[in-house]
Amino acid sequence: MTEDRRVRVVLVDDHRMFRTGVQAEIGQTEATGVEVVGEAADVDQAVTVITATRPEVVLLDVHLPGGGGVEVLRRCAPLMQAAENPVRFLALSVSDAAEDVIGVIRGGARGYVTKTITGTDLVDSVFRVQDGDAVFSPRLAGFVLDAFASTDAPPVDEDLDRLTQREREVLRLIARGYAYKEIAKQLFISVKTVESHVSAVLRKLQLSNRHELTRWATARRLV
């Protein structure tokens, strides 16, 4: 980083303490060149803050109430595609699951790093993404190359592709053992809506109950 270089960043994560930690670690503008101009805890907040502040880089968690990181990317697509000063996204997540990585990269994120990254490396990653580079945690880089460039890449999971993004979120939470009320609270929807999503998932996957659903999700490393 040059002495006078600056990058404006928005933090999107549903855990306030994590956002506070990242802010403390990288948000000392005079030292790092990173200026945190906004924060958000769910999809709607993220879209509102990103649209209002037009940062250079968004640090985006994958699992968010309201539709997940992929939904943020979908709704912010015009900002990513802007001819001048496009907003670029760097996924910052605890998850290294294949579905999560591929989902956000297909959605338009410029990279994906896990929350084990150091503050120094995260600052470096932010500036690289601002420059248009693709950035991945070392363990994920080879996987991403295989998934997108190799002729031997695993085929698309047609069963999973039948599900909407919201249905996938409900599926993941059911498989983790959450009760319907807990899922409703997590996703800001009603219990009745959760029940409707579960019914749709069971029908589309041709499963009979949540126990079969959990085994199905576990076999695909979605949990």
What general outline do the C-alpha atoms trace?
globular
| Residue fraction in strands | 5-15%
Structural class: alpha/beta
Q: Uncertain runs with pLDDT below 50, 5 residues or more?
A: none
Strand order of the largest sheet: 2-1-3-4-5-6
- Determine and state the CATH class of the largest domain: Alpha Beta
CATH architecture of the largest domain: 3-Layer(aba) Sandwich
User: Overall pLDDT, averaged?
Assistant: 86
Descriptive notes:
- The structure is a single chain.
- This protein is of the alpha/beta class and 223 residues long.
- It folds into 2 domains: 7-149, Rossmann fold, CATH 3.40.50; 158-219, Winged helix-like DNA-binding domain superfamily/Winged helix DNA-binding domain (Arc Repressor Mutant, subunit A).
- Helices cover 54% and strands 13% of the residues.
- The chain has helices at 16-26, 29-32, 43-53, 68-75, 77-80, 98-107, 119-130, 138-149, 158-161, 165-175, 180-187, 191-205, 210-219; strands spanning 7-12, 34-40, 57-60, 88-93, 111-114, 135-136.
- The chain has a 6-stranded parallel beta sheet, with helices on both faces.
- Strand 5, helix 7 (119-130) and strand 6 (135-136) form a beta-alpha-beta unit.
- Helix 3 packs parallel to helix 4 (68-75).
- The longest helix is centred in the last third of the chain and has 15 residues, at 191-205.
- The chain is globular.
- This is Response regulator transcription factor.
- Pfam families: GerE, Response_reg.
- The modification 4-aspartylphosphate is found at residue 61.
